[in-house]
Amino acid sequence: MLRPLLSRIVAACSGRRLDRRIDEEIETHLALATDAGIRRGLTPEAARTGALRALGGITQTREAHRDARRLPFVETVCQDVRYAIRGFRRTPIFTGIALLTLMLAIGANTAIFSLLNALVFRDLPIREPQSLVQVGSIAPGSTYEGGLTYAMFREFEQRQQVFSSVIGWLSNGVFNIASDNAATRGTVSVVTGNFFSELGVRPFAGRLLTPADVNMATLRPNMVAVLGHGFWRRHFGGDVRVIGQRVTVEGTVFTIVGIAPPAFTGLGLTTEADVTVPLTAYTQFSLSPSASTLNRPSGSFWVRTTGRLKPGVTIAQAGAALAVMWPTLKAANLPAEFAGAQRQRFLATQLSVTSAAKGIEPGVRHKFEAPLFVVFGIAVLVVTLACVNLASLMLARTAVRRHEMGIRLALGAGRGRLAQQLLTEGLLLSSVGAGCGIGLAYWSTGAIVRSIFRDYLVPATLNVRPDARVIAFTSLVAVAVGVLFSLAPASQAAAGNPSGELRHGSRTSSRPHHTGQVLVAAQVALSVVLVMSAGLLVRTLQQIRAVPSGMRADDVTVAYPSPRPGGYEGVDNDSYYPTVIGRLNAVAGVRGAAVSVTKPGGGGIGGGERVENAATPPEAGAGIGAVFAGVSPGFFDTVQIPLRSGRDFRWSDHSRAARVAIVSQTLARRLFPSGNALGQRVRVGVAPWRQSLEVVGVAADARIYDLKDSNLSAVYVAALQQPDSVNWKCFVIRGAGVSAESVRAAVDPLGAERIGRTEALTYIMDRVLLQERLTAMLAGFFGGLALLLAAIGLYGLMSYAVAQRRRDIGIRLALGAAPRRVTAEVLRDGLRITLTGVGVGFAAALASVQLVKSLLFGVTPYDPLTASIAPIALVIVATLACLLPALRASRVDPIVALRAD
Amino acid sequence: MATDRTDVLHGTLALMILTTLETLGPLHGYGIARRIEQTSGDQLALNQGTLYPALLRLEQTGWVTSSWGASENNRRARYYTITRVGRKQLKAEAASWSRTSGIIARFLDPSKDPA
Question: Is B50–A56 a contact, with Cβ atoms under 8 angstroms apart?
């Protein structure tokens, strides 16, 4: 019997077509009947009248036809919806609370799911992302995934047998870009000629790069560039006439040949390349590698390598095949000048073969994936809680409507029909709530993404527009929630007894009914779990903030210079650094200034090096892992890290002078347990120029990059003795109220570089905690929401119970019971339910905090403070929620209560 | 003339339509109406318009199909055809109908009672 229903659904959707059909049929019918009449000798008029009479009227026929294709199911649903809306409008407070709860719960889930979807679940929006495989290299002792050297890439491309094609690329280095209209800093990607075609990308305008442009064999690329769509809109006002014009990257001239499509982020997720040029042109504007050594073995693993699997080859097979060729590939490309530790390190480089389908975005993913999953788990708990909460509210509401239900049953409504009514009400609420929730989610994910990417050097974002998967997820949640929370009341309605309902009406006097009690206890239990998880995450943030950095960050400003085109050419660091720091020290209000090769406080980007006593023979992987920093004289004073012994760096520790180092107290103790570190020699990493540094000072322990890093071993080298230091440095300046303008006035006139942004060190150190702050904030929000929902649930249940027992309470008060005893009794009922919930919840929480463990810092999952505060908070909130109904109970007027029925 | 004509008994119209289509093959609405009237010897007060909802229901159930075709004097008409399922249904309904009418007939004329 499914067929008539299906065809009716089809008919209901194709109403107009069927209207036309019946009209035509009636017309034919009348014409044929009239013809027949005329053949019998009637006049045409009489024949037509007769035909109409026999038919029984055109309109009637049409109506009857329409009736036949009606959908009774849709009609009853419409009826139910209308009835439900009327009911909801009569109870605006219930409806408001329910909608708000649903909006927050479903919205939160949608928001976190959208973020997860964008970051973890979604395939790249390019051709056949599933068959793309990332081939990378990982240096021993590191987690950072590099690429291949250029020479290795060339050999790999020829020798491998598992990919139908191999793409080489390097994306989103930040360079100075200039055109006829403007100069700016932007992201530059370099790619092989098959990059665009292999990813199935079509140009927005003009053309994209081709293998002929890149010319891997001769290393003589066509100097052509493709602009990113966003960059083109921002800087060229979206004028296609830029094609054919010039754009320069660090002074190197390229001709614009095309525009990439909008929002094309390559193999990454967050950043559009502003300018894309041939891979082989990289050496012409980047400081390393150099053009002359490109094709020779080197230690520069810069070419990101992505392969497209041949049909039928799995990623595991590819991995196995590449693992076989990896040792020979390394051996063939070992630079001849590498010896000792450096050689061992090169040969120990590991191969990494992973799917590229979801995009290469290690930084953002590494930081936010785990917290998002934890927060998602919390959000799922919240939506479960909301479900239970609404179920208990609906149950109370249904109980109030028993009389109405009884009448409907007595009048012959089927039990299924009543259940359908309640289900309709539930689904209606949940879909409206979900609708609002999607809006909330869109707004909040936007805000979260903006805060994540706020301080990026270049415009970056994550596409969190809800796609089919998000919509499907939200719909699924909405339907599940709607069905779940109407299940309890619907099953009760279906089991109802009409005569019983009608006879007793509102006279029944009972304690809060059993299902309701269980539901509210479940809410309390879930809330305990949520509040405890949230508490741990908030405590984590607190603990991190309490970690001493060993620096004094207040009044310290960090300024980022960028070179003028060619500005660093011919600059002698040895004389330039003292000059520029001298000028900065002369700025009014400045109490100290220094160069730091990496920005302090900026998270775990400083990297580490292995340090060992230079007297021991070199061995790969040996030594003590230490935080590594290149700093100029005055750095320790500027950020107020005390020197325990020895001296600070001097300008005389320049590039041609004897190499020196300063170590932290902890490192000094570990390297030289027996005595004074001063004057000893250390080996730092594998770089040939750092194999024997004299320790000239010991600094107090400090966490200059990462507050969460428990490693207090640190080695500092002189900035002037760091090759390339000029490219990455920033200025660190101490002084109250030092303005960006005054810094610019000191640095810019020297002609080599310009100061872009300046930031307070306190701001940088706070930004680093973004992930922890976001997690704590979201978890705190959900924890608060959980408390609120539990309170609403308890309040609803107790109010309902008191309303039900008014008569009962009235009689007792009339017989002389003390109002205080009545109050106490209601409170006791409420607390009994709460304590049951707290007990169950506490046990569940102790089991489930393991899930947030990975995000904790400085607190154990069984943090006594959190473990005691969460249950106490719930008991307090529960008491407050029960207090109002309890007081109301004591104020029941016996006369009114007894007369009410 | 119509005073002693019988109204179509509820549920029997479908049976009449199916029989007509089974006997005459594909036919348009007017043809079906005429055939039913003729077969009943003009004894039946068929409101011809009721035929169309009945046809639609039969089509929705899958017992007939329909398609556009040309009528005798070349008008565009919708032709109804009985399906295989429809034939099976007709056989079952016809059998049940003759059983029922046989029983009713025995009640109305006890002389034919075999007992």
Answer: yes
Can you tell me which residue has the tokens 């987690």? A143
Chain A interface with B: residues with Cβ < 8 Å: 3-4, 7-8, 11, 18, 21-22, 24-26, 28-29, 31-33, 35-36, 54-58, 60-61, 64-65, 67-69
- Give pLDDT tens digits for A654-685: 988 999 999 999 999 999 998 789 999 999 88
pLDDT of residue A510: 47
Check whether A126 has a pLDDT greater than 50. yes
Q: What DSSP state is assigned to residue A818?
A: -
Q: Which of A608, A610, A560, A606 is nearest to A706 (CA)?
A: A606
- For residues A546, A550, A554, A556, the Cα torsion angle rounded to the nearest 10 degrees is -140
- Cα A353 from Cα A162, distance rounded (Å): 12
Tell me which chain A residues have a C-beta less than 8 angstroms from the C-beta of B57. Answer: 4, 68
Q: Quote the tokens at residue B70.
A: 């040309």
Residue A506: both structure tokens together: 């509102």
* Cα(A225)–Cα(A210) distance, integer angstroms: 11
Instruction: Give A32 to chain B, closest Cα distance, Å.
Output: 7
User: What mean pLDDT comes out for the span B31-51?
Assistant: 81
Which tokens hold the place of A596? 């730091």
Q: Which three-class secondary structure state does DSSP give residue A575?
A: helix
How would you classify the pairing of strands A183-191 and A275-278? parallel
Residue A835 pLDDT = 93
SS (H, E, C) A628-655: EEEECCCHHHHCCCCEEEECCCCCCCCC
List of residues 6+ apart from B68 with CB closer than 8 A: B76, B77, B78, B79
Of the residues B1, B27, B28, B30, the best mutation for testing chain A's interface (the one with the most A CB atoms within 10 Å of its CB) is B30
| Nearest CA-CA partner of A611 in A662, A648, A650 | A662
- pLDDT digits 0-9 by tens, A355-406: 999 988 887 888 888 889 999 999 999 999 999 888 888 887 777 777 777 7
Q: Is the ipTM of this complex over 0.90?
A: no
Lowest mean pLDDT among A182-196, A227-241, A472-486, B66-80: B66-80
> If DSSP codes are grouped into helix, strand and coil, which group holds residue A789?
helix
Tens of pLDDT along A846-893?
Answer: 888 888 888 888 888 888 999 999 999 999 999 998 888 888 888 888
β-strands A252-259, A132-138 pairing: unpaired
Cα–Cα dist A347/A881, whole Å: 67
E strands along A691-744, which residues? 693-699, 714-718, 730-734
Residue A718: beta bridge partners? Answer: A631
**B29 in A contact zone (CB under 8 Å):** yes
Task: List A683's β-bridge partners, or say none.
Answer: A612
Q: How confident is the model at residue A511 (pLDDT cuts 50, 70, 90)?
A: very low
Per CB-CB distance under 8 Å, the chain A contacts of B48 are: 29, 33, 54-56
* Region for residue A312 given its phi and psi (left: phi exceeds 0; alpha: psi -120 to 50; beta: otherwise): left
Beta-carbon contacts of residue A811 (< 8 Å; ≥ 6 apart): A894, A897, A898
Mean pLDDT, residues A812-826: 86
Pairing of strands A693-699, A660-664: parallel
CA gap A386, A392 in Å, rounded: 10
In this structure, which amino acid lies at residue A367? K
Strand partners, A134: A306, A354
d(CA A179, CA A246): 6
Question: Which of B29, B50, B54 faces A25 most closely, judged by CB atoms?
Answer: B29
pLDDT digit string (tens) for A523-580?
999 999 999 999 999 999 989 888 888 899 889 999 988 777 667 777 888 888 899 9
Confidence band, pLDDT 50/70/90 cuts, at residue A420: confident
